[in-house]
User: What shape does this take?
Amino acid sequence: MHEVPGGEILGKLRELKARRVLIQTPEGLKREAQSLADFLEENGIETIISGDVNYGACDPADREARLLGCDALIHLGHSYMQLHLEVPTIFVPAFANVEVIPALEKNMEEIRRLGKKIALATTAQHIHKLEEAREFLEKRGFEVLVGEGDSRVSWPGQVLGCNFSAARVDAEGILFIGAGYFHPLGVALATGKPTLAVNPYSGDATWMEREAERLIRKRWAQIARAMDAQKFGVITSTKKGQLRLAEARRVVRLLRENGRYARLMAMNHINYPALEGFDFDAYVVVACPRVPMDDYENWRKPVLTPTEVEILLGLREDYAFDEILG
Ligand code: SF4
Assistant: This one.
């Protein structure tokens, strides 16, 4: 359960002299969004809740806020991302209410297998516990590094599903704290270093090597399926933080230079059903890297990332995770 700091948000809105605001929320904070709307209305601020599902700070509804005549946007659930926004935006990250030390304590033996010089990485949800984790590990004799990361992340040590810059440090292994496999998998693939994911909710620890191999096998299968494809739809996103037009153009150029037909496309919510009816043999998603990786089973046509296109065309041999670097 996350707490949304209504009083603090109200204070910031008053500073902005906002009279009407739009709230956007990820799936898991819908009720909190509704309570926040009630609270703001009680305090004299007209509030509209966006019903569109939001997956990241890369997709702020500032354009919609402006269209609705709002003076500000409240973006719940994600930390600040450096983007050019059309209205003042208050990012309200959701910090998980779970302790991380018990899970670290339970898995000390596994953590020691990473080496003495380790890097810590986590998602925004647990970032407030990173310093505590660092102290705990340093007291146990580790040299702990926390990478700065580039301008796409908000805090040192934070990784996104599209950005592992904070994990690229001179360590022997990476200790990832958090739930889910996508982020630690990305860390393992992006750094090529032993990566142990410790889940503070379950207390489980998982080495990512085998998971990474499994994922790479699946991705090679996608590349093989696309090998004979002649016509490619290359899709970029109209979401602000996923709009990679230059990269999408580069992919189109590469495909054309290598004798394939390629057409540049743009979509907001990239999903296969919306693409039914186009005459393409395969697609390349040049937007959120999670779309082709997480959702490919729902696509009837092969769907690749830009780096996978390079492999397909024989321009690269080693597998590389798609990243959006800041
Ligand atoms: Fe997350 Fe994808 Fe947005 Fe990156 S592009 S922040 S992985 S939703």
